[in-house]
Amino acid sequence: MKKFKAYRVHTIDGKPVCRFETLSLDDLDPGPVVIKTAYSAVTYKDAMAARGVGKNVRTDRPCVTGVDLSGEVVSSADSRFREGDKVIVTNYKLGVDQDGGYADYARVPADWIVPLPEGLSLYEAMALGTSGLTAALAVDRLEQAGLKPAQGPVAVTGSTGGVGSLAVDIFAKRGFDVTAITGKLDQADFLKSIGAKTVMSSRDLLADKSPLVAKMLWAGALDNVGGEYLDRLTAYAMPHAKISVAGMAVGAEWKTTVLPLILRSIDIMGINVSRQLKMPERQRLWKRLGSDLKPQNLAKIARPIAFEELDKAMDRFFNVTTIGRVVVEVGQKAERLA
Ligand SMILES: NC(=O)c1ccc[n+]([C@@H]2O[C@H](COP(=O)([O-])OP(=O)(O)OC[C@H]3O[C@@H](n4cnc5c(N)ncnc54)[C@H](OP(=O)(O)O)[C@@H]3O)[C@@H](O)[C@H]2O)c1
């Protein structure tokens, strides 16, 4: 039987031990659709699994991690897919409780698979991945709630991260004036080059602690950080602002008062691209990511790394030095993007 390379996490004495191993298909969790992986990515969730943070990966047996993958169907026992189909899988239990994207092959349930939409290559699909889907859902929901560029600027926190940088680009493409809020002011030129009109340091955002700030800066926002950041976004919001909440990079707590929500009639909406995001909606958003929501600066936002570099890439997530998206060349070398 054919052997291939995989990056697996074992839990030994309660601690994660990651290593490259040689596996065959029978070593993978069963699933009716066999995919030859082209690319995966590195997300915060992957870094958590590799370093044992938050205990998000199964511990009773080893797991091939990698919560995102794109590739080509090799065989399918499900009539919805056939050999040669190009596909994307993100989230569900992939890479945490079902062997995931860090292997030359994956076996997955057909219900988790999105056909690669027109307008995206397999590489671009992973330049977007979970982060792109999250940014797309946030923009889509804000617009459906009535947010329009004429109402005022939008803010994005954690703007050099995967979700943040893609959101900056997508909002700008949709015609919004974007304020990119970041702890990395040295990345201001990068943020402007992907569509930010204004760059604000996180320190400046957090400086004023009053519940309502006189300067009402934003008609909309996407928060990837949580905690005080979300509190400050509400304090600086314009009347009737809409704020989508996707992340909690600084923690799950949200300390605030209800004053801005009531006095400025602010809408807060939660964003979740886990299995709660139903397949028709998932497919609709991926189609938009291949067309009207497709970022214009993917070549700047995503960078490829060789499969062998994977372990080193994990630690960068914890010292907050990763910029944009990291695409892993599992079975294919990265294509050059325009
Ligand atoms: N809701 C969902 O379905 C969903 C899906 C995907 C991800 N997420 C969550 O969304 C968040 C962003 O994901 P991501 O993939 O973009 O992560 P990421 O690439 O690690 O980016 C997070 C960004 O947040 C900022 N940040 C990180 N740690 C911080 C800290 N301690 N204090 C202040 N700022 C900090 C940094 O940006 P700056 O340096 O530019 O400030 C960092 O680049 C994460 O919490 C992730 O778990 C949620």
Describe this structure in words.
By secondary structure, this protein is of the alpha/beta class. It has two domains: 4-116 and 297-329, Quinone Oxidoreductase, Chain A, domain 1 (Alpha-Beta Complex), CATH 3.90.180.10; 130-270, 3-Layer(aba) Sandwich (Rossmann fold). The chain is 28% helix and 27% strand. The chain is built from ten helices and 16 strands. It has helices at residues 44-51, 122-144, 162-173, 188-193, 202-207, 227-235, 259-263, 279-289, 298-301, 310-318, and strands at residues 4-12, 15-23, 33-42, 63-64, 68-76, 86-90, 105-108, 114-115, 154-156, 178-182, 198-201, 218-223, 237-245, 267-270, 302-306, 325-329. Strands 3, 5, 6, 7, 8, 15 and 16 form a seven-stranded mixed β-sheet that branches. Strands 11-10-9-12-13-14 form a six-stranded parallel β-sheet, with helices on both faces. It has a three-stranded antiparallel β-sheet with strand order 2-1-4, covered by helices on one side. The structure holds NADP nicotinamide-adenine-dinucleotide phosphate.
